[in-house]
Amino acid sequence: MFEYDPFQKQAIDLIDAHTSLLVSAPTGAGKTLIAEYAIEQAMRLGEGAIYTAPIKALSNQKYRDFREKYGDNVGIVTGDVTINHDAPLLIMTTEIYRNRLFENIQKLDRTAWVIFDEIHYLDDSERGTVWEESIMFSPPHIKFICLSATVPNIKELANWMNEVHSRNIQVIIETHRPVPLLHEFQAQGKLIDSFNQLRKQGYLGIPDWSHYAQPRWERRRKRKRSKQHSFKQPKVRPNRIDILIRQVEEDHGLPCIYFCFGRKRTEFLAHELASFCFLSPAEEEKIMGLFNKLCAHYEITNEPTVLTLANLIKQGIAFHHAGMLPTVKEVVERLFTSKLIKLIFTTETFALGINMPAKTVIFDELRKFHGTHFGPLRTRDYYQMAGRAGRRGMDLQGLVISRINPRHISFMEVEKIINGDPEPVMSQFNATYATLLNLYAHYHEKLLDVYPLSFHYYQSSKKGRKRALWNLVRKLDLLKNAGYIKAGALTSKGQFAACMYGYELILSEMLAEGSLDALGEEGLLIVLIALVFEPRKGDHQPYFDKYTKQIMHEVEPFAGRVRKMEKEFNVSPRTKPPFFHLVPAMRAWASGLSFQELQEHTTADEGELVRYFRMTIQLLRLIRQAPSTSAALRQTVNQAVSLINRDEVDAEKQLRA
User: Fold this and answer.
1) Which of 570, 441, 578 is nearest to 506 (CA)?
2) pLDDT averaged over every residue in the chain
3) Is residue 533, in this structure, part of any structural domain at all?
4) Which residues contact 308 (CB under 8 A, 6 or more apart)?
5) Residue 450: which of 99, 162, 132, 169 has the closest Cα?
6) In this structure, what CATH number is given to the domain that contains residue 236?
7) Please, are residues 415 and 198 in contact by the beta-carbon 8 Å criterion?
8) 445: which of 7, 18, 397, 501 lies 20 to 30 Å off by Cα?
9) Which of 377, 405, 403 is nearest to 184 (CA)?
10) Pairing status of strand 343-346 against strand 317-320
11) 151 and 288 inside one domain
């Protein structure tokens, strides 16, 4: 009989008492089992449950896992996928759940439990407000299970829910890891097993090498000024990856997850180790049989990435990142769970919720790009990834190895990442125009009374509260001035905007003047792909033909009008302008070209294309269901969806396969 850990038993007793709970525990400690128990209880009592996940890949995995157990009692709704939407157990992205609270709350009447996986996403700068709004506006009959990695202010979060929303939510904090972690380092070409030795051997007794990163002329200037000659630059011996991996293999440290912070880096390192072979002839035959079967199943046998991967897979090596086709990523994930992939190079999303433990985790470095700057990893991010080391019931400990270049990161920064306190969850509440419009429809002028219910208000100083409330007032004034609200009610333009989360103003202004209706399906696809796309650093606009330029000229006055309004009312954050980089690829796809042929029309990664094409489909569906959409525009939307929702882009096809 399965033996529950004490914290799991405590949680189960609270679920049996129909009590909401917030569980904070290390990665790999067994939090998911608690959510599964609540789901089983709901099924047994004939009630509904919703499992929300921060990323669609995790939603898809949970759908497959639960479908194996509950069959047709499971559905999924993620914006680009809707399967069995009336099922008692629904898997959703958090955005879809938040939208349902405003658009069709009656559908939640039978829902007893909502599980918020990775609740610490509440402090994500771009999407965190969605988690906060989901908690704020959930009806009182719904009980929560909030699952989180270790964060220091978990009780503060629970107190907010208890005090502001009158919910009885109990906190369970588990600090023990069933499989302890051992932290080691590769520095100066050596494998080092303690902080003391890292300081002596890795940093040569110099904890901060930032001085040596300065330009040579600056070092000479400082040396001359101080009349000292102690600035001789110490040598950095290379950390050879082949030696490291060979050592891990000899120490029986496989399987290993190797985390990189760049897509191209994962592929580069995988190919750099192509001379290694970790599989016996029997294992090679088994994995290639499974690989070929999965590729045939998903109809991707001739995809370039698949052909590239094949030579690595037969040696027990793989790579995995967001730039790959979703089906290719899934094949790699299934191979990894088969225990035949011994070394996988991957980006950090592999650590997020997906149950992929290994014996060893290696960090390529302890710095990453944080959206606007490069800096050290957060302690919470480090342990989210490091927590994949150590398989419960199989390993006595998990090994975590960090590769250190003393010129790139100081000893104190390394020590803080690994031994410091995890960062607290901080509110990122910033209601969208759509949220404000939906609130106005319910509360009218009293909608500003809702702000004191937010976690942001609970956490903030008096000055911070005043600033946030002022921003909400300015947004509301803009909506009134622009005709989204009149005479105490939403106008037809306001009703349309209330459905367009994140894309409200430009689309609504175009709708109001008939520009959306005047677009054919191709023109509509051009507008929408430009609205959803966000260029990466270094992306360049391609050449545009006459038709694309015509559509661009039609959109620009509306984007300019929105910029002018937001500047006038001093609103932040500002609406993202349209970027037309993917238009040639979108038009080629809509014309019927194969996915492989799209590479002639864009430099974007395959996975990136699929993601933005699916976001376009999601936005098309929002337009179709909006109350102010004309019959003619709905017909255009249907035609546009039929043009692009096929083959690799068809998310439902991937799940139904």
Assistant:
1) 578
2) 91
3) yes
4) 267
5) 132
6) 3.40.50.300
7) no
8) 501
9) 403
10) parallel
11) no
Classify residue 572 as left (phi > 0), alpha (psi -120 to 50) or beta. beta
What CATH number should be reported for the domain holding residue 497? 1.10.3380.30
The secondary structure of the chain in percent helix, strand, coil, rounded to multiples of 5, reads 50, 15, 35
CA distances from 584 to 270, 341, 349, 512 (A): 32, 37, 29, 28
115-147: burial string, b at 16+ Cβ within 10 Å, e else: bbbbbbbbbeeeebbbbbbbbbbbeeebbbbbb
Q: Which domain holds residue 53?
A: 6-173
- Pairing state between β 190-192 and 181-187: antiparallel
Task: For 598-655, write each residue's pLDDT tens digit.
Answer: 988 998 999 999 999 999 999 999 999 999 999 999 999 999 999 999 999 998 887 7
Read off the pTM. 0.91
Q: Residues 82, 215: one domain?
A: no
| 499 within some domain | yes
Say whether pLDDT at 53 is over 90.
no
Six token digits for residue 77: 């709704």
Residue that has been written with the tokens 């990523």 in this structure: 329
Does 201 lie in the same domain as 162? no
First to last CA, the chain: 34
Q: Which residues of 477-498 are buried (b: 16+ CB within 10 A; e: fewer)?
A: ebbeebebbeeeebbbbbbbbb
User: Exposed, middle or buried, 36 (CB in 10 Å: 0-12/13-18/19+)?
Assistant: middle
Residue 137 has pLDDT above 80, yes or no: yes
Same domain, 119 and 208: no
Q: pLDDT at residue 228 above 50? A: no
> Which of 134, 157, 173 delimits the end of a domain?
173
Q: Let me know if residue 259 belongs to a domain.
A: yes
Total domains, the chain: 3
